[in-house]
User: What shape does this take?
Amino acid sequence: MENRIELLKPKIDVVFHSLFKKGNERITKAIISSITKEEIKEIQLEDRHIIGKYPEEKLGILDLKAILDDGAICDIEIQLADNKDTAERFLYYWSRIFSSQLEKGKPYKELNKVIGIIILDYEFDKTKNIEEISTRWKIVEETTGIELDLTDKFELFIIEIPKARRMMESNQKDKLTQWMLFLDNPNNKEVLEIMNKNEEIKEAMEELEEISKDKELRLIAELKEKAIRDERNMMEHAIEDGLKQGIEQGIEQGIQQGIEQGTKQAEIKMAQYLKSKNIDMEIIMEATNLTKEEIEKL
Assistant: This one.
């Protein structure tokens, strides 16, 4: 293991897509089970696909969609930068998956449950005072104080990687913690120790070693990681600019405008570089979320 190549980080979306794909159902089933705490006997993975247009004409692309043995649809998405729209963004994805099931003439009761899983590389504002790595959300009635769910068709898990890092020592045997540490940085020596105790993570590590040898994937992953660092830096400036513009146009509006402009610029720069390296158009579209028309104009 000493001569291992530097492994790509699975939390980078293009790496995540390559790792948890058709043919790797066993490790995908293991990570979902560690989150839901339920035994999953069978799983069917679907190819990534565009589910519609996100506000501001941004394409909404799922990180992973899986059909569980009971018919439930599971969507996993990773967010590495806090764009201040975490809840709204994921509810948009969830609603599109839920409504897309219904064919004309079919009764609503035939809609399958949709489980949303969102993995964050930052701490969610609403759960900053909660120590647990994962929180589970449902639609509940709150006026009577009775724990009454509106429906069993909606379920949302929010997992925060920074909390897994903090709980590494005290909660190392927890399978969810182990998976989050693996997603965060598989080159970490603690993760290597975990690998020897968790067969599914060991299998995921072996698969990751193979895809980390792909020079094209490595190039895109490294560019994505740099873009994320730039985006985080840009957001800090956007907050400052938003505060300065707050009196005239509202603090939130100022921040959001700065974030959207910076994100678009980062995507354009990445697309220009990948295009100069003659990378396939479909790969550039996936890596940047730009349209074919936007890329052709660069």
